[in-house]
């Protein structure tokens, strides 16, 4: 892989949990080869406290995280994006944003831990599941031989990552 840094945007509806988790995970695991961002079509304006607590427990970066609109990435001064992944759960009733333009895109649907009702243990568990699913998908993404895959093969791999489910599901 070249020394080029790839810009990755994770999109969901509220930009409070799933995309925030993915941004932090990729910025840590990508080790300077990738720069991750996150945004939402209808941002909540705050980070889900259970997602934030989990990231802190895992020792992952949280200082620059904030809930923001995907409009920030449509501005002329926005970073040029190489990859855009939607992480909303298409099986639910939410609307997944679609990103126009040239970046490679894929849908990596994850259930929204911010939508879980119940006690704090249920909410912590939901955040942990989303974290695990995203960590696994991001790890597989990082292991792809980018310099050896043509665009069609890379797109197929990105789509396949989004179809992965954890054992026991």
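Sequence proposed for the structure above (169 residues):
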């Amino acid at each position: 892989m070249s020394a080029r840094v790839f810009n990755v945007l994770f999109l969901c509806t509220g930009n409070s949990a799933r995309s925030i988790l993915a941004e932090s995970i990729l910025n840590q695991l990508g080790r300077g080869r990738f720069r991750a961002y996150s945004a939402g079509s209808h941002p909540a304006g705050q980070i889900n406290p259970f997602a934030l607590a989990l990231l802190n427990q895992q020792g992952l970066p949280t200082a620059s995280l904030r809930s923001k609109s995907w409009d920030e990435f449509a501005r002329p001064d926005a970073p040029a994006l190489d990859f855009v992944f939607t992480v909303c759960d298409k099986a639910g009733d939410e609307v997944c944003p679609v990103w126009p333009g040239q970046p490679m895109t894929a849908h990596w649907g994850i259930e929204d831990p911010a939508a879980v009702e119940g006690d704090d243990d249920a909410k912590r568990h939901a955040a942990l599941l989303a974290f695990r699913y995203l960590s696994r998908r991001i790890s597989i993404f990082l292991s792809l031989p980018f310099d050896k895959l043509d665009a069609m093969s890379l797109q197929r791999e990105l789509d396949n990552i989004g179809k992965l489910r954890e054992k026991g599901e």
